[in-house]
């Protein structure tokens, strides 16, 4: 692709929001190394799932010992979502009930995995929102915040679990569910998930985030999560159902890892979209991730400035960012957030009357906007 073609594509995506905004989100995902954050979140979430199931089975065996019918119904409903793993746990419920070691492992494992997932989510959101390191909670308060948050998540997930089970079963409490009721249950589940995501983005981010700027991304992520749940149910029912124990165990582990990874990816991408929209980090220059011989626009400068100031470890530490390249021609656009810390707001910039150097500056020459000799830019790219 020639430089002339790249220049035309760049100009097109910068003029059209529907092209420039998704590209800016993709660039920020790679700038933040969000895929590694997704892998970290997947690791802790995966570690918490099996201990939680183990704890659930042990708790049923202890609390519902005198009600075997209700115990069996709950086991068939919940463990039925995990065909092979569920059969393994269902067959060993009596062993788990009388095994204090299994119960202790379940409690410790679920706490480790759940708190790790909460910590990973906090770190990821603070990094995405470019919260300086010194403004984040210390290790003790961040874990306390994670524990408080997990109580809310458990309540919300319990509601969505009951709704998904009611929608997936042909009968619920002896009542045959029709299409309209199933659709209503699915919509309620999406609304609950959207509320959980909205609370997550707001509570775990140590940054002033306007809720009105998060609802669209939360709703979109909730819809994507619902589709992912349906896909996971189809995989468990049609791919793993009837599989041998050996193949089925590998299939459930790999499928569960992929399912959690996609869910974490949805969570992270929705957060990236929120930041790009809130701080107007678009449109980006097309070739900025690939070369230094490129003209940075205002969105590029705001993004790279935020990445540098995020690593401020102390409140008395000052990080300044300079670009050895002339700013883009034309007026500087608004950042899009009233509390944007990533550069001065155009309204706060010194006026020509307040700045004698600007007041007596001669009219701009077109050549003045060219990059300096130390950074001339690619031939035929910015100078065609």
From TrEMBL:
Residues 323-384 are annotated as: Disordered. Residues 374-384 have a biased composition (Pro residues). Keywords: Cell membrane, Membrane, Transmembrane, Transmembrane helix. Pfam families: Virul_fac_BrkB. One of its GO terms (cellular component) is plasma membrane. The chain crosses the membrane at residues 35-64, 101-125, 146-167, 179-201, 213-235, 247-271. It is a multi-pass membrane protein. This is Ribonuclease BN.
């Amino acid at each position: 692709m020639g430089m002339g073609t790249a220049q035309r594509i760049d100009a097109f995506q910068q003029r059209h929001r529907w092209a420039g905004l998704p590209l800016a989100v993709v660039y920020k995902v790679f700038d933040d190394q969000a895929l590694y954050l997704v892998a970290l979140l997947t690791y802790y979430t995966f570690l918490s799932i099996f201990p939680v199931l183990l704890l659930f089975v042990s708790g049923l065996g202890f609390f519902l010992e005198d009600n075997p019918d209700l115990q069996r119904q709950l086991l068939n409903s919940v463990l039925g979502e995990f065909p092979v793993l569920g059969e393994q746990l269902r067959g060993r419920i009596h062993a788990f009930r009388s095994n204090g070691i299994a119960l202790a492992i379940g409690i410790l494992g679920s706490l480790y995995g759940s708190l790790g997932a909460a910590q990973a989510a906090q770190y990821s959101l603070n990094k995405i929102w470019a919260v300086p390191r010194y403004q984040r909670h210390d290790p003790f308060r961040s874990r306390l915040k994670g524990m408080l948050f997990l109580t809310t998540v458990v309540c919300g997930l319990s509601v969505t679990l009951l709704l998904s089970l009611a929608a997936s079963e042909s009968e619920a409490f002896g009542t045959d569910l029709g299409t309209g009721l199933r659709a209503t249950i699915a919509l309620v589940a999406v609304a609950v998930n959207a509320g959980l995501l909205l609370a997550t983005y707001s509570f775990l981010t140590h940054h002033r985030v306007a809720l009105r700027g998060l609802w669209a991304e939360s709703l979109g992520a909730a819809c994507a999560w619902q589709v992912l749940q349906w896909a996971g149910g189809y995989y468990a029912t049609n791919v793993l159902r009837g599989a041998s124990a050996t193949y089925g165990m590998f299939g459930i582990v790999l499928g569960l890892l992929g399912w959690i990874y996609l869910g974490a990816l949805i969570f992270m991408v929705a957060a990236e979209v929120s930041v790009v929209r809130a701080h107007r980090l678009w449109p980006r220059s097309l070739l900025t991730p690939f070369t230094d011989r490129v003209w940075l626009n205002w969105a590029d400068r705001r993004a790279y400035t935020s990445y540098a100031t995020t690593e401020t470890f102390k409140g008395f530490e000052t990080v300044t960012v300079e670009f050895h390249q002339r700013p883009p021609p034309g007026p500087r656009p608004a950042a899009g957030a009233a509390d944007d810390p990533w550069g001065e707001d155009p309204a706060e910039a010194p006026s020509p009357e307040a700045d004698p150097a600007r007041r007596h500056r001669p009219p701009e020459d077109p050549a003045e906007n060219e990059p300096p000799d130390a950074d001339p830019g690619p031939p035929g790219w910015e100078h065609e």
